[in-house]
Amino acid sequence: MTPWVFVATALTATAAVAVTGFAAVCVQVRRSRLRVTVAGESMAPTLMPGQVVIAHRVKGPGRLRTGDVVVLVKPERPGNWRWPAAGKGARLLKRLAALPGDPVPGPVASALGVSGAVPEGFAVVLGDNAAASVDSRDFGFVPVDRVIARVPGCHPGRQQ
What we know:
Oligomer: single chain
Helix content: 25-40%
Strand content: 25-35%
Radius of gyration: 22 Å
Order of helices and strands: HEEEEEEHEHEE
Shape: elongated
Strand order of the largest sheet: 1-2-9-3-6-7-8
CATH topology: Umud Fragment, subunit A
């Protein structure tokens, strides 16, 4: 084998490894991110209708913090989270107002007639635009396992 054939073979093998590695990275990024289009006014002015956000998938509630904007699977029937999700891709964007053990926020406590702490395994979500939002005031506590992603860098009143 001449030196040039050896070099060409080595470069071809290196290119194949690089392409395979790049493909693996692309697959991992696709699995860890979620593209969501804002559908309504409930998160205005933070997120506006038609705006596209990239959310980071979460694996368990450990990385969630009160104040995060999250993507959650929408229930089939509001108020009954035990039902299957409402069709593929049915998602809500809301702000986490309380996590398990936190006090139930006033607007939710008043609307639902509850008090005390958020039960273990559940969270409270609210829209930034209360007048245009269907949220925990309407459908109650959200199972934490229905929160599938969080939108980084979303703070109240700051447009993205």
